Amino acid sequence: MKLSSFGNKFTSESGILSLMDDLGNALAGDQDMIMMGGGNPGHIPEVETIFKQRLERITENPKEFRHLIGVYDPPQGEVEFLENLAKLLNKEFNWNISPRNIALSNGSQSGFFMLFNMFAGKFDDGSHKQIQLPLAPEYIGYADAGLSRDFFTAGHPQIDLLDEHSFKYRVDFNDISITEKTGAICVSRPTNPTGNVITDEELHKLDQLARQHQIPLLIDSAYGTPFPNLIFTEANPLWNDNCVVSMSLSKLGLPAARTGIIIANEEIINALSSINAIVNLSTGSFGAVLTQDLVRSGDIINISRDLIRPYYQQKVYQTIEWFEQAMGNQTPYFIHKPEGAMFLWLWFKDLPITSLELYERLKDRGVLVVSGHYFFPGIEEDWRHKQECIRVTYSQSEDKVRTGVEIIAEEVQRAYSHG
After folding, report:
1. In a domain, 13, yes or no
2. What is the pLDDT of residue 149?
3. 133 within 8 A of 189, measured Cβ to Cβ
4. Statement: the pTM of the whole predicted model exceeds 0.85
């Protein structure tokens, strides 16, 4: 079958395709895999009960039920949800936005696909622009979202060693080059895969840099505030008419609802709505209708603060304790300071094998992680650090996570001892 350039690009091997294939095959297979690779949120009983009760109320109301399953929403998204969300964000953050500043997408992934290709790629004047990532590692789903090649450029992070086994990435502004080829700056906060939360100072410097060069700053807040609020450190949100802030209902516990949220100036929102109409016809209603009451009342913030964030905070510190016990003091490992999201980022300095080889060995033993080399879009050179890291998620049950940690430690120690 002969495919177009578009077809060839989006059917070739990619990190996000490999990740989702692994997850699907593992769930469908006979082997009882320990899933420490994907980004599926944990199943929090108290939160699922809230959604179940809300769904029951919807099914008992003919008008709401019909809206849930049988009505096309406008390309911008469900109208009442946009109104309630604007009120909530104004109340919480004093952002002074209206429903005209918000659009929904069928998941954050499709939202960023539209945004990236609005601001980068080939332009009508023949120029080609790129998305600047302030630092990599960054989200695996960005890497192949551009319609053209050579789509990203990224800065190398400054690596600060915090103690014997922990470190933190910081933005190295000396390694960021904004030129006429830069279409936008994009950063996730908290960052998937590392759990890094760039500081308020770093974020404001990026905002100033974007304004200076008259390009937008895209802030991916899929794990951030106000929901699901998976931030374990001090961090204030930022929005202005030059920022594009993305949120999501997925990590709230609704990944199947595929509801992304984009907050931007009206010109950008109008453009997104036009693309939505062509690509998707309409955005899905499920997530917006299901969470409507929670947004209207503000309970979505209470749930995030009182149920979701504590759940992950407890799990992350417990998982780190298990790694410390399993690794011991002889293994040269570092864990990125867990400041948010639902992952641990492990760095094995001078690892004798590649992270992809480590991934394969762990997969053979029934543990799925993600090789770190997928998370460096925009850094093309053979930087050894890219081959020394893995991402693990700790959202599964405690017994499986602890077993997975012990197997990871065994394989890492074997690699250092025997290669």
Report:
1. yes
2. 85
3. no
4. yes
pLDDT value, residue 25: 57
Task: Flag residues of the chain having pLDDT under 50.
Answer: none
Contact 98, 82 (CB under 8 A): no
* Domain of residue 405, residue span: 1-412
**231 within a domain of the structure (yes/no):** yes
Q: Report yes or no on 417 lying in a domain.
A: no
Number of domains in the chain: 1
Residue 419 belongs to a domain: no
Q: What is the mean pLDDT of the chain?
A: 93
Residue 163 in contact with residue 312, Cβ under 8 Å?
A: no
Which CATH number does the domain housing residue 158 bear? 3.40.640.10
